[in-house]
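[Q] Does anyone have a clean structure-token version of this?
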Amino acid sequence: MTDEKQDPRYQMPLKGVSVEQLPVLLRSALTAVLDEFPPGTGAIVFAFDFGKKGSMAYISNAERMTAVEAIREWIRRQEAENDERT
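[A] Here you go.
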């Protein structure tokens, strides 16, 4: 997560989590995930409120576009797997 100024729409806290707590919690979760994998592993941690109007936050150890590409690939694979089941 970078310290650059972001669009305020994306700085809304998750329900029950303050804006100040959110980056701390996300960094802690990412560190916990990365501690379980060998060096060189990419990871993305998402946290979100359920529902259409819920907030969403993420953190990754990858550059933003690398993370976006990984998410797109994951979605593509999930959709293909779902298509195979039907």
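[Q] Thanks! Anything notable?
[A] The chain has one domain: 8-85.
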